[in-house]
Amino acid sequence: MKETENQNQSQQNNGGGEPNQEVLMELVHRMLGDMGAAVSGSLVVLGDRIGIYRALAKAGPSTEVELAAASGLDARYLREWLSNQAASGYVSYDPSSGRFHLSPEQVAVFADPDSPVSMIGGYYALASTYHDEPMIAAAFQSGDGVAWQDHHDCLFCGTEKFFRPGYAANLTASWIPSLDGVREKLESGGARVADVGCGYGASTIIMAQAFPDTEFVGFDIHAASLEHARSHADGLPNLRFEEATAKEFPSADGFDLVTIFDALHDMGDPVGACAHIRESLRPGGTLMLVEPMAGDALEENLNPVGRLYYGFSTMVCTPGSRSQEVGAALGAQAGEARLRAVAEEAGLSQFRRAAETPFNLILEARA
Questions:
Q1: pLDDT, tens digit, for every residue of 9-21?
Q2: DSSP 253-268
Q3: Structural domains for the chain
Q4: pLDDT of residue 367
Q5: What is the DSSP string of 275-325?
Q6: DSSP-assigned letter for residue 18
Q7: pTM for the whole thing?
Q8: Beta-sheet pairing, 99-101 with 192-196
């Protein structure tokens, strides 16, 4: 309440008076926290890339010298890294013993890639936004877009690492079961599924493993991502990946389910994509949209989740859409009402929220 009152008081200055010193210092301290988080993000990527988190989780409470012996890394560098991580709350420190360790909660977030709350991938994706800032600055000035494939490679691997644990935890356990009659179709055999905008193929592979009697095809526009997907498909006989756009993927035999995971808002022509999907669905077929959690009004999204998604929307999603035909630029915080409007304009009249998580909306649409 006090912070809100201070913000209101500051806003009343209309930018023309002297700053409220209390509000000013609150902003300065907030920025210091954000700067600390920003620089620590590079250390998170470093810690994952060279295995420090995993080494510490395995070794247990350790000094930097003990961790150096266990990991083969330099003790002096480890001391600085561990100190930053302890100051961040990412690693625990015991002053009485001078040892660092990971709590079970910290292991779940930083050292277990299969944990549903693994957050490491987000930091790789964040790294790409710093690499790509000059391209986005040019786009701000020209109004042009920046295509997905033009971003730094950290975006591609980071997106997969960030979303895969959530997909693994929810996709077959709750999201597909929340759709009307879909799980039964996939279990009965003979069904066909298209995963549009599949990227590295994490979602497609998870579904193909869970429903071995259903045929899955992953479509994407990024050839390098499809190469990665194929290399990780584990020889699944019911799965293949093809390069195609959301408006032109082949659909002669029709699909019982079409999925789009966190990608519709990136598309230049989401209405056109949904119209093509409608035409590709077999009778009684379903479109499942997984989109970032968002309210329908800006003020509903002024929170930590909205802050994260608006950031990526500025640096990745909106430029990506603007690089394609139509350039609708829904943005990563489009919200359910706007997504419903897109689906209905494309002729998908049956639309509902089937499930949700703190990070995702799971939407079901039918012709």
A1: 544 555 568 999 9
A2: T-EEEEEEES-GGG-S
A3: 21-111 (1.10.10.10), 166-304+317-366 (3.40.50.150)
A4: 87
A5: HHHHHHEEEEEEEEEEEE---SSGGGG-SHHHHHHHHHIIIIIHHHHHTSS
A6: P
A7: 0.90
A8: unpaired
